[in-house]
Fold this sequence. Notes:
Strand order of the largest sheet: 1-4-5-6-10
Shape: globular
Order of helices and strands: HHHHHEEEEEHHEEEEHEHH
Number of domains: 2
Distance between the termini: 17 Å
Structural class: alpha+beta
Strand content: 5-15%
Radius of gyration: 21 Å
Number of helices: 10
Amino acid sequence: xxxxxxxxxxxxxxxxxxxxxxxxxxxxxxxxxxxxxxxxxxxxxxxxxxxxxxxxxxxxxxxxxxxxxxxxxxxxxxxxxxxxxxxxxxxxxxxxxxxxxxxxxxxxxxxxxxxxxxxxxxxxxxxxxxxxxxxxxxxxxxxxxxxxxxxxxxxxxxxxxxxxxxxxxxxxxxxxxxxxxxxxxxxxxxxxxxxxxxxxxxxxxxxxxxxxxxxxxxxxxxxxxxxxxxxxxxxxxxxxxxxxxxxxxxxxxxxxxxxxxxxxxxxxxxxxxxxxxxxxxxxxxxxxxxxxx
Length: 293
């Protein structure tokens, strides 16, 4: 049982159970981003994150709409490669955390282990503020791993920007060419780029990942894009958290399938919404979804 089992069960028990049994016809973009980032971090190879994302985009495909789905996929793949290279730095692959025994079940944290013994998570977000920080500090992705392992956690929040027509314009992805000397910048320290500066996405250039990160460093772009916060263990809360985890684990093992309507369209439509309620509730199998092997 993994961290993500607790996250998905908390969102909707039916989604977690069905999601463990059936393949999505297309992968939700947040899931594809996080899965590809994990592949890159564990391998220590930013190119691996890019390749993993593009492979998911090819089969089974990304759950995004638009006339340039391929261009959107390439854009996000390059974004992931750059972010992954930044996070890895010169430290090599991130180390996964081993499974731990919790009461009557085996738990697999999905965070990573720092050399000093703390846990570490990377959060991709469109923006970062006090409310989003509290959300991440108190989410199962943080709380379950911290209290199951008894280790504090460092959260690295990476702001990748709002999606605009499928693209995410930010210093991670776009630069501006000077109209005369063709010098590229990714951020102005004061003011904004005038209209005669040509906007260009990284995938439209021959810039390597290291070169792009150097541009970001020179323009001091990381200050508004990278945030860190530490979550310490509160001993008074540990017993209650572990008790909740044991209770939820029993529900997960029982393959609970009660739906939570509040989660169907909270941030994005749930992939199961089309078979859960409309036009009538049917199982993914009845709808012809492919079962996982």
